[in-house]
Structures are given as C-alpha cells and as structure tokens.
Amino acid sequence: MGMTMETDYVKFFQSFIASMVQIGGINLPKSVSTMLGRNLGEVYKKRGITDQKVALESMFKAMGGKAVSFVDTQTGFKVTTEFPTEFCPIGGSVKPKRHNMFFEGICNPYASGFLSSFNPKEKVSLSFQKCVLKDADSKCIIDAKFTK
Q1: Can you tell me the distance from the alpha carbon of 111 to that of 21, in angstroms, rounded to the nearest whole number?
Q2: Which residues of the chain have pLDDT under 50?
Q3: How many CB atoms lie under 10 A from the CB of residue 65?
Q4: Positive or negative torsion for Cα 94, 89, 71, 40
Q5: pLDDT digits (tens, 9 = 90+) for 95-116
Q6: Cβ(6)–Cβ(88) under 8 Å?
Q7: How many domains is the chain built from?
Q8: Residue 98 is part of which domain span?
Q9: Looking at residue 139, what DSSP letter applies?
Q10: Which helix (H) or strand (E) holds 30?
Q11: Burial, 68: exposed, middle or buried (Cβ in 10 Å; 0-12, 13-18, 19+)?
Q12: What is the CATH number of the domain that holds 104?
C-alpha cells in the first residue's frame, strides 16, 4: 500500500473524528477510544502478553513505529516511539491545530484504556511530551504515571 493510499485512509479517519466531535462533542470519541483501548488490552492478555510495556511496544510497532524505547521513572515510565517519517498513523502529518482534538479524543483515552487493562487497580495519567502532529518531528513521547 502506497503513501497516497495511507494518506487517504488517514484523511477519512480525521474527518470522521472531526465529525464525531462536531456532533457529540469531545466525549463521544473519548468514550469510544477508551473502550477500544481497553478491549485491545484484553485481547493482548488473552494471547499471553501480560506485561504492559511489551504490549505497548507491540501496539506501536503494529502502527508503524520503527523504534520503541522505555525509560523508567519514579511513578511509571516514559515511552518514545519513532516513526519512519513525520506522519502519525492516527493523526497524519503535522497539524498543530488538530493536535488537541486527537490527543483528547483518541490518543490519551485509547492509551489510558489500553494500559489500565493490564492493572485495573492503578490509575494511569498520560502526558504527551512530543507528538508528530504538534512538533513537526517523527517522535511520539509519552510520560505514563501510575497511582493506586
């Protein structure tokens, strides 16, 4: 599949998300994303992947991430994903104006739901320190913090 076809898919997805936000507000895609992230986490666990870092690395690589690395912090970990180009498989190319919509409506709730499925007793909070959409770079850097 060529880059043009991938770009067309992402454009469709982006307009679909923008329409969801326009019709139902940011909570509509947020709720769907949380549920889908949690469901994917359950699928990983059923397949024997119970370590959230291993699962997260697998998820990012499935989305085209060419390098995924982790640094442990006092409260969780920081994960860095590097994509081959300045193109996010969810949000597309650099679009700072759309960053917040995709972060709030898709990325944050999806990743939070995904990670929380591995340890439901802990609350996860994510901050995105770098984003392809916002920073004109090929990296996504997420700081994941866990509390009981």
Answers
A1: 19
A2: 1
A3: 21
A4: positive
A5: 888 888 888 888 999 999 999 9
A6: no
A7: 1
A8: 3-147
A9: E
A10: helix 27-46
A11: middle
A12: 3.30.1380.20
